[in-house]
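Risk register update: the risk that structure generation would not scale has been downgraded. Supporting records follow, first protein first.
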Amino acid sequence: MAELTISSIEIAAEPAAVMAIIADFAAYPRWAKGVKSAEVLTEYDDGRAFEVAFVLDAAPIKDEYTLTYDWDGDRQVTWSLVKAKMLKSMEGAYVLEANGDQTDVTYRLTVDLTIPMIGMFKRKGEKVIIDTALKGLKKRVETLG
């Protein structure tokens, strides 16, 4: 059974700047550890990604998978798994909240694998993935900002 893992970070930028980095999938291999490639397959009329194919190599998980995205302006983006080799399900979100000249970013992730894994190890892996993603996002936004 998949369990929700949540973590947050504060980024010194406005929500629009943070969401612009989140929406730039082509750049993910430069800042999202373990992401070897991210290719937008289809887009909404506004140019934001609807479906994205990923190649991931983040031990112990190596996979190729496709996600669909749902955008709520610069406030939130959610995603759901379409297909994968190792992943059975994945639901996630970045939730952004303006806080003065900073943005509070919360990352929510629920993952279920096709292979059995002890819950404690799976949750630890999810926490590492989330923390790494948030730190990478913060560094990318603040470096480019």
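Supporting record for the second protein:
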Amino acid sequence: MENIDFTRLSSKGQIVVPRRMRERLRLADGEIFLIFGTDDTLVLKRVQEPTAAEFKGIMARARKLAKARRLTTRDLEKAITEERNANRR
């Protein structure tokens, strides 16, 4: 199968994506990935920044949802603070 390759985990916890795979998938330096892990499986998903138009659409949907749920700026700030505090533990 051409989309399967092997790599190793370094002592620093780094994984190298083999050149053949980078070329096949047209991966560039600095690309960002989301990583999913479960049991003995890791999955990498390339993440791309949204365009300005896509971001505008995302924000419009978020505002509409927040309005429908009657969320205030204070509610959002509180949720962000709680999440940050939970992640510090």
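The beta strands are 32-38, 41-47. On this basis the risk owner (M.S.) recommends closing the item.
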